[in-house]
Amino acid sequence: MVATRDSDHQQTFTVTHRGNHYNIRNFLQKYHPGGFKWVKPYEGKDITKSMEKYHHSKNAYYILREYKKGGRDSSKNDSDEDLESMVDWSKPMVSQVGALGTKYQEWVMLPVDRKLILFGNPILENLTKTPLYMVPLFWIPVLTCFFAYGWKELNWSLDLYSCLHMSLSTLIGVVMSTLVEYAFHRWIFHSVPSGENKMMIYIHFFIHGLHHKAPFDPRTTVIPPVATTVLAYLFYLLYSVFLARSVVFFVMTGMIMGYITYELTHYYMHFGAPNENSYFHYLKRIHNQHHFNHHDKVFGVSNMFWDTIFNSLVELKKLHMPVKW
């Protein structure tokens, strides 16, 4: 459920920082880790000392540059260099990231609020952008087929053994999907490419770097079906080596269920406004920590189970009033 508030009709929310004026309304509406209520008292005021007092991250100062009235703040100072001068956001990014070299890793983890263009070719560009509705539209029929094939292997039976077989195998698939979600995010998506290896920079940028660079672009949040289809097929082949056919089909059913849940949850963490004190409210707060403060922590999205197991969870601050977006 998307929260509403009286100020939603406003087009500006101006603050001052180091003598410059910024309209941060777009950021507050859904993205600010502290939510709207925490920042409301600072409307029209100088936030320089407050940002220092509350130890805002480098990412916070960097994203603030986006909202300077009159255009992005590209000034240089000792604590916060603007790296966006190294690229041209009006041109395809795929032809530029490789040249960033050793600066790539720093640049890609500093967020901007912009639409990302990957390719100049519109056909290739559209293949990299996936609307959220494509996830259930594409994967629910596939999930249904896997379940039907598995049930067929059990001769369409609904006796106790068959029901337990279906339930446990599907549950194993769901649990496996959460482990894959965590493992891929931590050890593949966040692997650090060498500044001398352009190919690794391109790969990292395509699979995850683009999402950290442009986390507010809904077109970069959902993984394209082509990529996930290849992964699903590889998992199917792997399971087929070790498991009975009926088990394979139900495990794949559970994995796809888990994957759909992951995509919907991830999208909601970025663009939704969960009710205060709900589970999704907690997930959004902690996912914001991953994007803005702790890139090396909090790799789960749909749940925090594996972060707890592998000691990559961060502790959220106890607040005297709840966050509201």
Automatic annotation (TrEMBL):
Q: Where are the transmembrane segments?
A: 132-151, 163-184, 233-260
Q: Which residues form the Fatty acid hydroxylase domain?
A: 171-311
Which UniProt keywords are listed?
Endoplasmic reticulum, Fatty acid biosynthesis, Fatty acid metabolism, Heme, Iron, Lipid biosynthesis, Lipid metabolism, Membrane, Metal-binding, Oxidoreductase, Transmembrane, Transmembrane helix, Zinc
What residues bind heme, as annotated?
32, 56
* Cellular localization per UniProt: Endoplasmic reticulum membrane
Q: What is its EC number?
A: 1.-.-.-
Please share the entry's free-text remark on the cofactor. Answer: Binds 2 Zn(2+) ions per subunit that likely form a catalytic dimetal center.
| Pfam families referenced in this protein's UniProt entry, alphabetically | Cyt-b5, FA_hydroxylase
> How does this chain sit within the bilayer?
Multi-pass membrane protein
Example GO biological process term?
fatty acid biosynthetic process
Predominant place of localization: endoplasmic reticulum
The identity of this protein, by name, is: Fatty acid 2-hydroxylase
Species of origin? Zophobas morio
Q: What is the lineage of its organism?
A: Eukaryota, Metazoa, Ecdysozoa, Arthropoda, Hexapoda
